[in-house]
Amino acid sequence: MNRGPNWGELPALVLTNLYQHLSYHDRLQVSSVCWHWRSVLFQPRFFKDIHFDVARENNKKNSFLLQSLAHIVSEAKISFDSCNLYDVELATEIMYKLSKSSCLVSLSLRPKYATLVTPGRFYSEEEWNYIYKLFVEPIKVLLGRQNPPLKELDLGCSEILSLHAADFLSSCSRPQLLKQLGFASVKQDPSHYALSSIESTLFEKCNALQYLSLDYDIMCDDFLQTLQLLPLKRLVVHVHGLDEEHPGVSEGAWASFRAKNPQAELHLTLVCAYEAVDMLHSHILRPSMPLSHLKVLFCERINCDALEYLSRYYKETLKSMIWVDSMRIQEYRNIMEMVLRTEQDPLVMMAWRCKKLEEIVIHGYVLDPHNLVGISRLRGKDLKVLEVSRIDLSMPSVMINPFIEEISTQLGQNWVPLDAKTLPPALGFYPVSDDVRDQYILRYIRNGVAA
């Protein structure tokens, strides 16, 4: 009697070839046939990255991922509640195990808040030792490996970890292979924080670096002169406070950087920069900056001079302009007084002059619907995103509707302003905690990085 084929004994090579023709979902379904088929699934070619979402309820899942995949994936992302000491320590356990991986070349941390809780006081020696042992040491182990070398490191905008940036670079065994470094931060207290220090010479050997994020406090002419020697495609700079002794970056330094790196884009982000926002056009922006993306997040005022500056000097580079504040009730009167109405609306001028502009986001300020129509006509379908939450309330809704229809027609998509139901909680009328605001900031910044 002839027996049929024993599908459970198919050679691993045959199964591997079969899996290569399936989608990720179908591959998982097929691998559930039996233990043998399942075992063939766990190969580096089928699992490039892994995401650990650290929480008590995910302990079993994370244990399985560590056991089955941590040794074969090349990219790892760790999300964790950075205000929960238990989750912080779980995250560091995962990092220590990943540091022993023979395949990992990319590590991305994703703390859910700007604050990283520790047993000690902020900036205390106890906190410093705790952070060093739990986070810095395993990252240095990864960076110190020769084979394979770590090529991508993102600290997830963690303030306390960014202070160790120099440590991380110094411990890198093969800096010439680094492609991405995320050292920029979001400060717990933007008006009072420790200044990090990174010698520009640490970047001299990073001759493959394409993406770099850091804080403006580090920037100066000499530092930018070193960066211009690197093949940067994107330079992300976060501005918080603006120290009186900060030398700034000159127009000449930016002109030289742009000449040496014509392909580089500058993403400039102001985060709760309550004082720096007023000096944005006079002390930070320079005509030769290759500025492509500007984000101004929760700085509590708008700077129309800076908006005008954008339209004058970044006609060939600007792609995105985002200015976000909340509309809390206690600030409502001030917001109403800051309606963007001038003889030449800077947003309209930006839409007219900036040839590559594809995104405008304004929250916390009342906008004139006539000017929004003008913006939509000038940019048309090239404007992929036009997001606002307040249109002049002096006009009845029946008069607003024709403006909305016209904007939708010009953009080639259904368009409406965000309202109380669709507005994120961090941007609403009611006071929210710093944690809610920080979560919004971190998501927004990370989305921008990924985009």
TrEMBL record:
It comes from the Eukaryota. It holds the Pfam family F-box. InterPro entries: F-box-like_dom_sf (IPR036047), F-box_dom (IPR001810), LRR_dom_sf (IPR032675). Transmembrane segments: none annotated. This is F-box domain-containing protein. Residues 4-50 form the F-box domain.
